[in-house]
């Protein structure tokens, strides 16, 4: 593990389970990936906030389990404007599976992220996805991270490298990451602070695709993260908690255009008065 700080017990349990999990065989997976930067650019050109909506049946930080068909959920999220989909494949703590990711990727035409806790190169050889998540804090050192990034790219994956502070950002950049997510959730205390992204974003090079992760639950949060420099937002619980995930996704993907419409309405009213 990269950091000497203690992890929350729930996160420690996730990490221990990940260490015990086996993977596939080299050569099992070769991907022709759908480009995430292109998908984000399409969302921007369409006037949508680029949102990566997450299919997450459950988690240690949420109550209950959602048992909807993952492909149906993903299609509903794309209908709501999602630029990409994230799928939890961790089975023990999140109720995910590689099979669910395969179903989702067959059901939608946007990039699909495999969100899991991947510690060794064999963990990459399990299922086809467009992107895979690598968490700096869970990796032994920068050299190991670079090996995982290179291994992911050799298979065709786009690696999304997750950081939480400036030191982890530096590690990610030195390892060659060009898609970086800043997790607003502290894995030591499981507390969420949107200020985390705001603190890390200014040190990120402009040619890096920067994603705000965790804690985004309202249009106001969306606008705050975008103002701080987020190219996209990864949102799970806030959308999964909605009865209608299409509406829940659309509420976030239209956060900027709705503000413009509201301002125009206010201006029209003032002119009439």
From TrEMBL:
This is Indole-3-glycerol phosphate synthase. Pathway: Amino-acid biosynthesis; L-tryptophan biosynthesis; L-tryptophan from chorismate: step 4/5. Keywords: Amino-acid biosynthesis, Aromatic amino acid biosynthesis, Decarboxylase, Lyase, Tryptophan biosynthesis. The gene is trpC. It is an enzyme of class 4 (lyase). It catalyses: 1-(2-carboxyphenylamino)-1-deoxy-D-ribulose 5-phosphate + H(+) = (1S,2R)-1-C-(indol-3-yl)glycerol 3-phosphate + CO2 + H2O. Pfam families: IGPS. Its EC number is 4.1.1.48.
């Amino acid at each position: 593990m990269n950091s000497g700080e203690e992890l929350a017990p729930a996160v420690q349990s996730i990490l221990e389970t990940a260490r015990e999990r086996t993977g596939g065989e080299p050569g099992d997976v070769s991907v022709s990936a759908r480009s995430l930067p292109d998908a984000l650019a399409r969302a921007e050109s369409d006037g949508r906030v680029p949102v990566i909506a997450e299919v997450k049946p459950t988690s240690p930080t949420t109550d209950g389990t959602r048992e909807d068909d993952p492909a149906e959920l993903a299609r509903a999220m794309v209908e709501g404007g999602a630029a990409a989909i994230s799928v939890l494949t961790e089975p023990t703590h999140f109720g995910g599976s590689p099979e669910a990711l395969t179903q989702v990727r067959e059901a939608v035409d946007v990039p699909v992220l495999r969100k899991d806790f991947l510690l060794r190169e064999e963990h990459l050889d399990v299922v086809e996805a467009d992107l895979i998540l690598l968490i700096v804090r869970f990796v032994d050192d920068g050299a190991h991270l670079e090996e995982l990034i290179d291994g992911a790219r050799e298979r065709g994956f786009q690696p999304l490298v997750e950081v939480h502070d400036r030191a982890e950002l530096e590690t990610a950049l030195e390892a060659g990451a060009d898609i970086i997510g800043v997790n607003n959730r502290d894995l030591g205390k499981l507390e969420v602070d949107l200020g985390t992204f705001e603190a890390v974003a200014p040190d990120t090079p402009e040619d890096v695709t920067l994603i705000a992760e965790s804690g985004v639950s309202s249009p106001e949060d969306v606008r705050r993260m975008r103002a701080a420099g987020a190219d996209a937002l990864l949102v799970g619980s806030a959308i999964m908690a909605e009865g209608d995930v299409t509406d829940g996704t659309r509420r976030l993907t239209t956060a900027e255009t709705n503000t413009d419409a509201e301002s125009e309405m206010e201006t029209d009213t003032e002119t009439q008065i």
